[in-house]
Amino acid sequence: MVAGRRGHAQVWDNLVLSTAKPGAVAFPCVVIHAPRSQEPWVLATNLPVSASALWCLSRARWPVEHVPLAAKQMLGAHRAFVCGGESRHRLPELALLAGNVLTSVAATAVAVATGFWDRYCRPTCGRLRRVLLRVDFSEIPVPAGPLRKKASVTGHLPKGVRGHRRQKGLITLLARGLRQRKAA
Description:
Elements: E1 8-15, E2 27-33, E3 41-44, H1 51-64, H2 66-75, H3 87-108, H4 125-133, H5 161-164, H6 170-183
Antiparallel strand pairs: 1-2, 2-3
Helix pairs in contact: 2-3
């Protein structure tokens, strides 16, 4: 019973996939008919918990998914594809961090109405995205002077022409040899 409303659940234990071989891992499936939901929730899990605990866990899951959703919608993280080993971890981590920052900024910023119909606007990521789409970032003033000093040691590196001189490759040496033969 939640908020004075009663729901019910149907539990099936020891289910396996239709393609599973004998001795495969079994799992329970719970169908929850929630008080305020028109469609039942079908939850398959490997947790040994009751149907009411599973319903509470699944309700607590939805707020957690807001940050990745914000990262995908605001930053376009759903269109980013990577192949490198480290990049497969780094890109989602950066998207989650940026999504968390954007969610925080959206929650603390003043809510902006999207039109005359929007009388009770709420501070959400979608509204922040619409506001940022109207901003011309080329008009934002840039602070004068260097933004930060690079604190790395570069005294041992070659400077000037020596710094960008390339090693002579095999083709360059062969071409020079052919020119010397023709001149001789």
